[in-house]
Amino acid sequence: MEIATVKPDYEVSACTEHPFEEDELRQLRDDLRNARASMEMERLKSNLDNQNGRKIRLLNDLRKLRERIDMDEGANANVQKLVLVLKSDKALEAQESVLRSKCQVRRAELEEETRELEDKLRAGWESDRLSEDLDCLLARSLEKLNLARKELAGKLRAVVSITRQLGDIPIQAELIQYECGFSELNTHIQEKHRQTRKYYGTYNALLEIKELMLKETSLLNSISTQFQDAIMSADGRLKLIDSMEAIVKGSQQKLQKVEVRLEEEQKACDALKKRYAAAMVEQRRCYSLLKTVQEACAKNEKLQSQKSV
């Protein structure tokens, strides 16, 4: 509710050397009476307009609900809404009566203050006493105005905050743009991840080949240095044969492990190929459905344009 503040068009001098004249006192009394009455009437009019507007909206809702009930006899939900609207209407009428009583009480108080001020003016109060009363009245009015301004500033801050929050919420076009950006970023990350896994796999394979080549070189060097000494005796030849058999056995085990891993990789590759083939079939089906939907939409738009013409 807005607080109307009346600012007099005159200034009352605190000096007692120049008394008020009769026409100035009459003008002051009329201005105060008119200001009080206009302020009270504006407040009453604003409150009544608000109540009448709410009452009109409720009556419109009631009329719409009655129309819906007439169209659908089994509309229990509409009946319940109607009951709620009637209760709300009664509550608003009670609030209106309370507000009217408060306004009448406030009007009576203002009229009483106006009569007291008129009596003081008729009694010929001293100008300094009258100036003090007017200063007090002006101070109270200014205090009410400051309170109203503070309340308005708080509401404006709340409105600005809500507006800023609503502005932070992206619209549909921004959401689509964000979705496209995230999709592109996800594709780029997946491609980088695939390349990184490929590079690590190549590095691990080359590292394993290096280790095998180092072992092979070490073995050949060992055989080259010990072969002449080993064939000179029967025990040396037996030890050489045993060591060679152990080397062959280890190589076979290593080969079996590699073959098992190769089979697993081949199975994984076959599974990925099957998934890729299924995805391609699904993609072609989606493209076909999309084309059908686009053709249907174009046909529908064409029919609508012909119908409108």
Folded structure, characterized:
The chain is an all-alpha fold and 309 residues long. It is 89% helix and 0% strand. Helix 1 (22-71) packs antiparallel against helix 2.
Helix-strand layout with pairing:
Blueprint: H1 22-71, H2 76-123, H3 127-168, H4 172-230, H5 234-308
Helix pairs in contact: 1-2
Keyphrases for this structure?
CCDC93 coiled-coil domain-containing protein, disordered N terminus, coiled coil, mainly alpha, 309 residues, CCDC93_CC, CCDC93, 5 helices
Instruction: Describe the global form.
Output: elongated
Number of helices: 5
Low-confidence region ranges = 1-20
Fraction in helix = over 70%
Distance between the termini: 53 Å
- Sheet/helix structural class: mainly alpha
Q: What is the average per-residue confidence, as pLDDT, rounded to a whole number?
A: 77
Indicate the proportion of strand residues.
under 5%
Q: Number of DSSP strands?
A: 0
Q: Which sheet architecture does the biggest sheet show?
A: none
Order of helices and strands: HHHHH
Q: What Rg do the Cα atoms give? A: 48 Å
Please give a quick description of this structure:
Keywords: Coiled coil. The chain is mainly alpha-helical.
